[in-house]
Design brief:
This protein is of the alpha+beta class. The protein has two domains: about 1-130, no CATH class; about 205-365, Sortase, Chain: A (Beta Barrel), CATH 2.40.260.10. Helix content is about 25%, strand content about 25%. The protein has helices spanning about 1-30, 55-65, 150-180, 205-210, 315-325, and strands at about 40, 70-75, 95-100, 110-120, 125-130, 215-220, 225-235, 250-255, 265-270, 290-295, 300-315, 335-345, 350-365. The strands form two sheets. An eight-stranded mixed barrel has the order 6-7-8-9-12-13-11-10. A five-stranded mixed sheet has the order 1-3-2-4-5, covered by helices on one side. Strand 12 (about 335-345) and strand 13 form a beta hairpin. The longest helix is centred in the middle third of the chain and has 31 residues, at about 150-180.
Length: about 375
């Protein structure tokens, strides 16, 4: 029994000495950057828990050769395991302090020291990091710096792109909407050189307030063409000897050297034309024989005429020769009304149209 108690006490002492040796090795490794020292572990003499071994135990201890425990440096991950299976397996034989070879090519990896203790039974490995100098860092995102000129340029480019897109969309929609419709042809009002005209349509107020002498014509209407209460103004001759035309293209001119309506003669009137929507007589060539024409006088009297015939003559000798027919009634002894306007193609050089349209109407009974 005495020998067993002595052996148990001796093993406890050896465990305590082993722990002290590990602590001293760690302290020495932390104080030196690259230690390369090997030393023999020796038991501590000042252990308060140790007992004086017997002579038999001294002889057994002297015959046993202690095994060495190695302490090495390593870059292996930090790990600590200290689980002896029994107290007998913790007998240290040697402690080896050697730097472990690095397992990575990068020099920036954190250094660690591995303390390896060899015992007769199990291997106990204690690893601790010796330096935290190099730590992994998150990548730094470069800050973006925008200049004011760059921002303004970007805004202008965006606006330009939006404008071009808007125009393209509008043009596409417009072409789709107008596909198959008749294209409008711009025509021009006949104007002599140096002559000015007013192309603004009179307002309803201006038409209603228009006043003339009681015996003069005031309003002109052709219901079938949508002409109602066009103002009738008095006109004379141009310097060239031709009958003049009204200043406003939406007025009708009564030639002052012709007969007044209601006097059993021939009244001659003209107006601007050339094409649909151009002047008061723009659509006059479309009128049909038998259509009604109404003339209202300044005193309120109204005269109705029925279209008897129409004709178109080329400008020049042909139109000039027909003028004699304009001053005569299509029916002898019956009051009539003659109308003249322009039609055909516009000649830019002479600023007039290629043809003249003539109409004669008889006073209705």
């Amino acid at each position: 029994m005495g020998n067993k108690s002595t052996k148990s006490t001796q093993k406890s002492n050896e465990v305590a000495k082993l722990e002290q040796a590990v602590t001293e090795a760690e302290a020495e490794l932390n104080s030196k950057s690259e230690p390369q020292i090997k030393k023999q572990a020796s038991p501590s003499k000042n252990d308060s828990n140790s007992e004086e071994p017997t002579s038999d135990n001294k002889e057994k201890s002297s015959k046993k050769s202690p095994k060495k425990s190695k302490i090495t440096k390593s870059t292996a991950p930090i790990a600590s395991s200290f689980k002896p299976s029994s107290a007998a397996q913790l007998t240290p034989t040697a402690i080896d302090l050697t730097p472990a070879k690095s397992t990575t090519k990068s020099s920036s990896a954190p250094k660690t020291r591995k303390i390896k203790i060899e015992t007769p039974g199990d291997n106990i490995v204690v690893s601790r990091s010796s330096s935290n100098a190099n730590q992994l860092k998150l990548p730094v995102v470069r800050k973006l710096h925008f200049k004011l000129s760059h921002i303004i340029s970007a805004i202008l480019i965006i606006l330009l792109i939006a404008f071009i897109a808007r125009v393209a969309i509008w043009e596409h929609d417009y072409l789709n909407r107008m596909e198959g419709s008749e294209r409008d042809v711009v025509t021009m009002v006949e104007v002599d050189e140096g002559e000015e005209v007013d192309e603004e349509r009179p307002t309803e107020t201006e038409v209603a307030e228009y006043v003339v002498a009681p015996d003069k014509p005031r309003y002109f209407s052709i219901p079938s063409l949508g002409i109602y209460n066009a103002r009738i103004v008095e006109i004379g001759l141009k310097n060239s000897g031709e009958i003049a035309t009204p200043y406003n293209i939406y007025d009708v001119g009564w030639y002052q050297n012709s007969s007044l309506p209601g006097t059993n003669g021939v009244s001659i009137m003209d107006g601007h034309g050339g094409g649909p929507g151009i002047g008061i007589f723009g659509s006059l060539p479309k009128i049909s024989v038998g259509a009604e024409i109404l003339v209202e006088m300044g005193d309120g009297r109204q005269f109705k005429y029925i279209v008897a015939d129409t004709t178109t003559k080329a400008l020049g000798d042909e139109a000039n020769e027909y003028m004699s027919e304009v001053f005569t009634s299509p029916q002898t002894g019956t009051e009539s009304l003659s109308l003249i306007t322009c039609t055909g193609d516009y000649w830019l050089a002479s600023k007039t149209y290629s043809h003249r349209f003539f109409l004669r109407a008889l006073l209705a009974e």
